[in-house]
Request: fold
Amino acid sequence: MSEPSWQEKLFGGFRKTSDRLGENLTGLFTKATLDRETLDEIEEALIASDLGPSTAARIRQRLAGERYERGLSEEAVREIVADEIAKILAPAAKALEIEAFPRPQVILVIGVNGSGKTTTIAKLAHLLQEQDYSVMLVAGDTFRAAAIGQLKVWAERIGVPIIAGSEGGDAASLVFEGVKQGTAKGIDALIVDTAGRLQNKAGLMDELAKIRRVLGRLNPAAPHDVVLVLDATTGQNALNQIEVFKESAGVTGLVMTKLDGTARGGVLVAAAEKFGLPIHAIGVGETLDDLRPFDPREVARAIAGVAAIKERY
Reply:
């Protein structure tokens, strides 16, 4: 059996999200007219699907302005949902560009423990390798021996050099060494893992500030990117994390993981609408190739379940 295509994985990954949207909308399509009560119910159904209040309000407004000669249908609503979601996602769909000069481009990767941060770093490195960039990793999450070990295994597996110390080591000095070696070897991208301690905001800020100071001595433009890894399955909590990390760590872009099999894929839309940060890539599976930049229209149709509707008719 051949490996499913990226599109198949994408639609499969968002199936629970589109099913949940369908369940929340069920029973609203028997009404011939779109009165205020029906619009209220549709808006509530969209919010319950993690699309966020402003997206729901935007879709409601669009529905209110449409004319339905033959009454409202589930397909018509889903098409409109897909169209509006695509408009929201389009400005956020921005792949990570390696354009720093002098090299390396320093990418700090942050996120709470359990978000899939370390695995995402490996997938991101693999994605850049596929674009013919040379990559080096820095195991800067020195608070967890497991994170250091895991990143070493990944580095070996994808064939990239890694700078790593022991548990409890100084992350800033590892980053310093990484930039020094990366510069000497002509590395394009230096991807740095960092400690994922959201609960101790002051400690996290101090550590990131120290890393920034050290980087500034070698390259005032570094870090070029501060990428926050988010676990989509946490829904609303993922939005709270963006809020905290944006303020404390100067997040420049997002990577959304674990979109495969979650019913909360709508959070991707809420994040794009609320924060306007670039979403560099999304993860819809376990393998190295399952992290990719996304096509806003394709993702919008997957979230709205437009393809699922067509299968049924």
